[in-house]
Amino acid sequence: MGREFSIALGFVCLMLMAPLSGCFGNEESGEVSADSLEVSPTIWTGGIFQTVTLEAQGDLSVFIPYLVKDPVTGYVFNSTVMDLKDGESAELSILAPPRTNNGVLLISDYGTDLWPIRETSESWKTWVDRNGNLDLSGMAVRYMKSSNSSSFSYEVHNGISVIPYEFMIQREQMPAYSEDEGGRHSTGVVDGRTTYNYLSMLSDETADPTDVVDGAVGYLDRWAGQGNAAYEDAALHLIQTLENFGLEVITQRFVYDS
Fold first, then answer.
1. What is the distance between the alpha carbons of residues 169 and 97, in angstroms, rounded to a whole number?
2. Closest by alpha carbon to 96, among 37, 162, 168?
3. What does the alpha-carbon distance between residue 114 and residue 155 come to, in Å, rounded to a whole number?
4. Residue 116: which residues within 8 A CB-CB, separation 6 or more?
5. Least confident of 16-30, 172-186, 202-216
6. High-pLDDT (> 70) share of the chain, %
7. What are the CA-CA distances from residue 246 to residues 98, 111, 235, 242, 253 (Å)?
8. Measured between alpha carbons, how far is 186 from 171 in angstroms, rounded to an integer?
9. In 3D, which of 111, 119, 106, 159 has the Cα closest to residue 137?
10. On the CB side of 168, how many CA atoms lie within 13 Å of its CA?
11. Distance, first Cα to last Cα, the chain
12. What strands, in cross-sheet order, belong to the sheet with 114-116?
């Protein structure tokens, strides 16, 4: 009799514990982790704006600490936060940093508005490697969203629970240049190789007999001043170049009378 009672009691306990264990299991599976976010593409292209898709595998918030372009206005703003419910996704036009191979997004509970930030002297990769996300104090930004715009305010935090999501960044290289010729810096929204080419052209001292201003291919005398023909020549070149980019150039001339 006692043995049968023990067996029956055991079955009753199992039946009672089954739903409870299911509840506990759901709570654990609902915790935010790096696996709670799917990002496409998995490898970003450095130096250009690209469409990035974020998909949530559970309720979460994502802090994107990079330049983001508004698809409607075309304006660019620095960093944003996305609140995503389980199964929701969002597409953003994001500029991946051009001079690093590693990128970082921050993940936290849904509705999080206070986010830790790195020091200005370090990269996000360095911040993650030194466990900056585990710091008990430091600088943070508070995300404030409104119907018309979003902004951040700075404050000191006393410990914030965030999870870093790391990904790779690759910067394309123009085939015309080797690495020694600056090929690693030859692509992107603003690239060093193009800047170097412009500076080289402006300072080109190669003789040009047809240039009556300074007798050179470049624009050697660029000092501003009244009656400086070389400066006028250089200014007209810049105006024409900017207009070729489709920009409106407003010329203002100031005259100094002593």
1. 8
2. 168
3. 9
4. 106, 132, 133, 135, 138, 139, 140, 157, 160, 162
5. 16-30
6. 82
7. 25, 42, 17, 7, 22
8. 9
9. 159
10. 5
11. 119
12. 114-116, 138-145, 150-157
CA–CA gap between residue 203 and residue 221 (Å, rounded): 9
Judge whether residue 82 has pLDDT over 90. Answer: yes
Residue type, 96: A
Q: Which of 113, 112, 118, 62 is nearest to 92 (CA)?
A: 62
Written as six digits, the tokens of 134 are: 């585990």
Q: Residue 41 carries which side chain, given as an amino acid letter?
A: P
Bond before 164 cis per omega within 30 degrees: no
| Cβ contacts of 226 within 8 Å, gap of 6 or more | 255, 256
Strand pairing report for 89-95 and 76-84: unpaired
Q: How many CB atoms lie within 10 A of CB 169?
A: 18
Q: Is the pLDDT of residue 210 over 50?
A: yes
Here the contacts of 150-153 (C-beta below 8 Å, separation 24 or greater) are 150/77, 150/80, 150/81, 152/79
Helices (H), 169-208: 192-202
